Amino acid sequence: MATTLVSSVGGMLAMLNEPHLSVKLHALSNLNNLVETFWPPLVDSLNYAVCIFQGNPETQGLKATSANINNDQFGHKFEISCKAPMKKGGEINKNK
Amino acid sequence: MDPKLKEVSQLFDRFKASFLRNDFDNCSNLLSQLKVLLTGFRSLPPLFADTPNAVHELTIARDIYEHAVVLSVKIEDQDAFERDFFQLKPYYTDACNRLPPSPQEYPILGLNLLRLLVQNRIAEFHTELELLSSAALENPCIKHAVELEQSFMEGAYNRVLSARQTVPHDTYVYFMDLLAKTVRDEIAGCSEKAYDYLSIKDAKQMLLFSSDQELLEYIKEEHPEWEIKNDSVFFQKAKESAPCKEIPSLQLINQTLSYARELERIV
């Protein structure tokens, strides 16, 4: 997305705790698009998010709202987001 | 009208009918269906796509979540309150340019502040308060929660309890009742530290009970470590189980004096 229209991912994170699976997956789909902007608050939710994927065989049968969900893609993007600041941190430490 | 939007509208009408009948089980079922249907709208946060019915979709979605928040108060589910409030909040903060203000906004924001107060999450209470505009702080629903928090911090528990009579909105009664329990627990904790024992009569008055039986039940449930004998409540056993460390004042004085001496040498 060119610009971020929301000021917080609190709403999406709250959706992860909804009882209905398709609402959870809808939240994950949106979080996937927002991960590069809001990765700090997502750190604590990553393990739980992955569990939703791995624990639900119904994922295959869901329709449009979950069509874009991809566990590897989510994990990959998240990994990139984590690595960047860590590398920068390393450089800062070296300078000191 | 868009068929999806029409379906949501009809389902929401059924929800509101059940809500008025206080049929909360049916409300919860319908709400779950509504939330699933709302995931199909691209105009809602965080996408905010410019669809032909964007304003209508945003308005009805906000209305649904506002009812969800109030429903969670009715069914006394604080976890649901928190989930629904967080999902509702973007409609107040990020969608305010696209929608006219909601008449339910300030009562619901006040309810959230009250919930944080009841759960003794004071830091988050102040965080939420900082996010509000100065105009919002003048609203009676917000002001009520702020005054409650001030009374709570001062220890003016009588003002906290009497505020139940002047709630600005009828949905507040549930949280005010919970707040009374929070206040009682605070008073009980203070009494435990301050006194070795209290007579039954005094303890009943302090903890705001109207009968001896209520006091005894409270002690049995909440403070089994308290001892009741000779028409008094003894806190001694609780104190013994939680020994407080004595401050080594002599050692601290010696250290402070030696620091002062060293500093004088430096000069």
TrEMBL record, chain A:
InterPro entries: PSMD1_RPN2_N. Residues 8-48 form the 26S proteasome non-ATPase regulatory subunit 1/RPN2 N-terminal domain. It holds the Pfam family RPN2_N. This is 26S proteasome non-ATPase regulatory subunit 1/RPN2 N-terminal domain-containing protein.
UniProtKB/TrEMBL annotation, chain B:
It holds the Pfam family CSN8_PSD8_EIF3K. GO terms for biological process: proteasome-mediated ubiquitin-dependent protein catabolic process. Transmembrane segments: none annotated. GO terms for cellular component: nucleus; proteasome regulatory particle, lid subcomplex. Residues 79-251 form the PCI domain. It comes from the Eukaryota. Keywords: Proteasome. Belongs to the proteasome subunit S14 family. This is PCI domain-containing protein. The lineage of its organism: Eukaryota, Viridiplantae, Streptophyta, Embryophyta, Tracheophyta.
